[in-house]
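Question (not urgent): is this output format expected?
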Amino acid sequence: MKARAASRPVGTATRGTTNPNRLRRMDRWIAATHGAELRRAAAPVAVDLGYGAAPWTAVELLTRLRTVAPHTQVVGIEIDPARVAAATPYERDGLAFRHGGFEIPLTRRPTLIRAANVLRQYDEAQVAEVWAGLCGRLAPAAEGSRGGLLVEGTCDEIGRRHVWVALGPEGPRTVTFAARLGSLDRPSDLAERLPKALIHRNVPGEPVHAFLRDFDRAWAAAAPYASYGARQRWIRAVRDLGADWPVTDGPVRWRQGEVTVSWGALAPLG
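Got this back:
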């Protein structure tokens, strides 16, 4: 995978915190929901943006995406050149590492950009500009294709709780909440992992606050299903939640401890 002409990377280095298998929930969702687009592309490129101090997440992304799209190539991009140098020995067929940032220094437009735990250190006011720049680098929509996908979100250190926004070339599409259900007391526990665009909006009067409030109520009402396990309780709560909120997925994803909602329903006011 060729890089674009050298220029100063856009962005700021993250703390670099990473752990093996941390992004499994996000990867699983990407493979299930975006696999068809990856297979449709002639030479799909996926970017792991800001992979951190070790290359584990990029290595895992390649493995998981190739189960659904065998010709996918993954490029890990880091703004810290020392991290790129440390990752280079892990390069192999379909996996490369490049120095760069939000400008995405590749000659080919990616079919996927995954940016996990990258924007937490930025101000909320900066998010829209970063999103727009990254969406502008995605493979464009075409006949029979919605184009590339940007997945930007936050998770805890071992990947038990995760919330992400999915965006296409046109902008934000959905928000997904995902959790290891056995570790969850109530759905609003996921509030601490809201992406930067939403985390400061979890206050009365904002849509995301109302959503988490209603989710907690649905979870409480589904308490009798707990005797069948946390998964059945989650499925029932999400089914009830869908009566008032635009849930876009179904039981196959709910069984994984996920629920996806249209972005427009949770977008910050103003």
